[in-house]
Design a protein that fits this description.
alpha/beta, Alpha-Beta Plaits, 34% helix, binds manganese (II) ion, 2 domains, binds phosphoenolpyruvate, 12 helices, four-stranded antiparallel beta sheet
């Protein structure tokens, strides 16, 4: 349920309304948007009478029920205002969402050694990426496949961050690694296979770094938003949703079915920013540029693209990785689409 406060309401009155609701045994959450202040009420609200709440103050504009099972993640909970997730990086704050310039995240599937990660960071930065991605802990189908270099790879990501000024996005698989990982990561990634690892969701929700929540490969949109709700409910408001393809019946050519319909669907359901990952979404580097362009046209806030200096030799996901040269030319192509939707940072700003 949300209590919408009238514009111009004195701060003391907003607090008084919150205090009054607390005496009813509720936990009011004040949400300050650009246009409105809203008080969110989550919990046992089914028996509450909206008219009774309305009577608390003449400054209350309306009292509305959030009908969906996800509450804090819903667009209604923010009264229709889209969230901006602001991530500080050495190169300055990067904003995801709410119509800000499209943020491109690029880098290898796995961090393999210092030279490759530093080199990739510099190259993708020169092409306009704002974040470096790279796995230290890899969720592999086979226990015999390369599992990532673990904690030592976090040190290499830190070196790449220092060398490039890019923000770092890397995946956490185990609650035990979260503290050390969050010292290096500017955004903590929860991968598709852990989307419903509720212990992990609660833990990333209880720390302060923004979270990138990938969609499980067989997850419905509601399940995905409920997973986001776990993070929000644990106190972390900075969640970015990443579509990375779902399982279809035909894996002969593309690894997954990249569900671009999530863009218009999620825009109606949630205020959270959206990222599209055409690399895992298709599994093949040849298919990445077309799906990245489509994602921009359909309104994505961000893209995740795998880039490796030598895809043929990559320890994971080589077939879907672009070379740095190819990434540079793809970024040129994407800029046309990004400008067409009014969401591409101008080159002057990139150089600055
Ligand atoms: C990844 O980003 O490298 C990854 C493993 O992605 P996903 O969880 O989407 O498979
Ligand atoms: Mn990968």
């Amino acid at each position: 349920m949300i209590v919408v406060i009238k514009s111009g309401t004195p701060e003391t009155e907003v607090s008084r309304i919150g205090d009054e609701l607390s005496t009813w045994g509720l936990s009011p959450e004040k949400i300050v948007g650009k246009h409105k202040v809203v008080i969110g009420l989550v919990g046992e609200t089914a028996s509450l009478n909206p008219e009774q709440i309305q009577e608390i103050s003449p400054w209350i504009e309306s009292v509305l029920r959030v009908e969906q099972p996800f509450k804090r993640a819903s667009l209604d909970y923010r009264h229709g205002e889209y969230t901006e997730v602001v991530v500080p990086t050495p190169n300055g704050d990067v904003i995801f969402g709410n119509n800000s310039p499209i943020v491109v995240v690029a880098g290898p599937c796995s961090v393999e050694n210092e030279e490759m990660i530093v080199e990739t960071a510099k190259r993708v930065k020169a092409s306009g990426a704002k974040f470096l991605r790279g796995g230290a802990y890899k969720p592999r189908t086979s226990p015999y496949a390369f599992q990532g270099h673990g904690e030592s790879a976090l040190g290499l990501l830190a070196a790449a961050r220092d060398a490039s000024g890019l923000g770092i996005i890397t995946e956490v698989m185990d609650t035990a690694d979260l503290d050390v990982l969050a010292q290096v990561a500017d955004v903590v990634q929860v991968g598709a296979r852990n989307m419903q690892n509720f212990a992990l969701l609660k833990k990333v929700g209880a720390q302060s770094k923004p979270v990138l929540l990938k969609r499980g490969m067989s997850a419905t949109i509601t399940e995905w938003l409920m997973a986001a709700e776990y993070i929000l409910a644990a106190g972390n408001p900075n969640v970015i949703l990443c579509e990375r393809g779902i399982r279809g019946f035909d894996r002969e050519y593309a690894r997954n079915v990249l569900d671009l319909a999530v863009l218009p669907v999620l825009r109606q359901l949630t205020h959270l920013p959206i990222m599209i990952d055409p690399s895992h979404g298709t599994g093949k580097s040849d298919y990445v540029p077309a799906m990245a362009k489509a994602a921009i046209a359909a309104g994505t806030d961000s893209l995740m693209i795998e880039v490796h200096p030598n895809p043929a030799k990559a320890l994971s996901d080589g077939p879907q990785s672009l070379t740095p040269d190819k990434f540079a030319s793809v970024m040129d192509e994407l800029s046309v689409f990004g400008k067409a939707v009014g969401r591409w940072e101008q080159p002057e700003a990139i150089l600055a």
